[in-house]
Structures are given as structure tokens and as C-alpha cells.
Amino acid sequence: MVLNPKIIVFVMEITVNDSDFNKEVIEKSKTLPVLVDFWATWCPPCRMLSPIIEEIAEEMSKKLVVAKADTAVCPKICMDYEVQSIPSLKIFKGGKLVAETVGFMPKAALVDWIKKYI
């Protein structure tokens, strides 16, 4: 039996929480734009969006950092950035929030939205 070797791909996707949000999102956004996906395990649209976000993280890894923020473990950040519905996507650039959208969207529309801000 022959096993296929694993292919390792560099992907700029990170998981953030209340304690490391400033370092991982705000500070990194001073070098590369950061897309933060605020999500929850119980949210069906979040689960539908997740593989699209993963693809974008891989395809745009040289232009964008993708951060996943589980709302259950980031209550302070959710309050600070007024996350009231999920999935909530926010783009940070130069240390500041520059764009946000809420809800599921197809990959092509999401990529078009991201490209406006990076």
C-alpha cells in the first residue's frame, strides 16, 4: 500500500481571542490587512462560510491575514467592535477597522468586497 505524502501549504489564518486580539489583528494589520471572521459553532451560516474563508486565506495569503474569532471566547472584542450578528466580517488595515459586513455571501462576492479594502 502506498500512502500519499501530505502537502503543506502556508496559510495566513490564525485564531484570536480577547487576550491576543491587539497583537494578532491590530498590530499585524499595520503590515498586512487582516480579515476577522467573527463566528460561532452553533451558527449554520458561519459553518457555510468557513470553507470559503479557508480558501480565501490560502489564495490570498501574501496579501491578507485571516483571523477567526469564536464569539464564545471573545466577548470583550465582540462588544468593543459591536458584533451583534454573525457571521460578521471585519477588515483591519493600518491598525484600524476599515470595513465590515454581516451574513453569508458567495465566494466571488466576498473576494470582490475584500479587494476593495486591501
Task: Give an overview in words.
- It is a single chain.
- By secondary structure, the chain is α/β, with parallel strands linked by helices.
- It has one domain (13-115): Glutaredoxin (3-Layer(aba) Sandwich), CATH 3.40.30.
- 32% of the residues lie in helices and 25% in strands.
- The chain contains four helices and five strands; from the N terminus they run βαβαβαββα.
- Strands 1-3-2-4-5 form a five-stranded mixed β-sheet, with helices on both faces.
- A hairpin with a 2-residue loop joins strand 4 and strand 5 (96-102).
- The longest helix is centred in the middle third of the chain and has 16 residues, at 44-59.
- The chain starts with 12 loop residues before the first strand and ends with a helix.
Compact summary:
This protein is α/β, with parallel strands linked by helices and 118 residues long. It has helices at residues 21-27, 44-59, 75-80, 107-115; strands spanning 13-16, 34-39, 65-70, 88-93, 96-102. A hairpin with a 2-residue loop joins strand 4 (88-93) and strand 5 (96-102).
Output the structural class.
alpha/beta
Largest sheet: 5 strands, mixed
Strand content: 15-25%
From the alpha-carbon coordinates, what is the Rg to the nearest angstrom? Answer: 14 Å
Number of helices: 4
Query: Could you estimate the helical fraction of the residues in percent?
Result: 25-40%
CATH-defined superfamily: Glutaredoxin
CATH architecture descriptor text:
3-Layer(aba) Sandwich
- Overall geometry comes to globular
Pattern of helices and strands: EHEHEHEEH
Q: What's the count of strands?
A: 5
